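Bit of a strange request maybe. I'm writing a small parser for structure token strings and I need a real example to test against, not something I typed by hand. Could someone generate the tokens for this chain?
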Amino acid sequence: MVDLSAEMADLWAALGASSAAPPRERGRLIEFIAARGGEGASTVAREFAFHVARSHKRRVWLIDLDLMGQTHAETFARDAARFGDLGPPASASPDGSMFFTVQPPLKRPDGRAWPDSRYINAHAVGDGALWVTRFRRDAMRGRQGVHVTPAVDYWTALRRHADLVVVDAPAAERSKAGLTIAPLMDEVVLVVAADERDTAAPADLRDELDAAGANCAGLFVNRVQVEAPGFLRGAIP
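Reply from user aminoacidic:
Good idea to test on real output. This should exercise your parser:
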């Protein structure tokens, strides 16, 4: 495993200088997204969340927005020696609100719909400064599908329970989930692999984010396989 602690420290410092940072009394929302799969956005999001929780002693939630392709909880569990043990499942919603909807809804014995919040758990990682979500695909039945929504309630509630919320969005080429919630975030970081020669896709994604009203903080060039990664505020050529 490549040690990215120095690069994550630099990224935290760069993002900390943003004028878009929210007041200290409420948590901050930062989304990581790539135009295409394989750029390393999930690795960057996970390492960033872990770094801030461990090195800056902040309460951090890592939201795995790729609901049908979850990876983070399993990655933490496989490397407990580094991250710490994965805790038992707990509620991932402070107030019952949720950032997605499962349709058609399941009915409980009393006829009421099964709450969307029951389809997702949160797990403490290590000492509990870091929490990660895991969507319960096993709880879905039949023709049910899940859709991320632009509802603000969940993110407002979670701000009161975390210093930092890191959202790892699936690649834009295969899901609109990241674009759906991007305007609700304080900042969005675009991740591009260093060996990516085609800059059109990330540039197009930046334009889509801008058009949606999202705050694109900058570009993180993921050079894990080559050299130290780097964060470039604002500009995509």
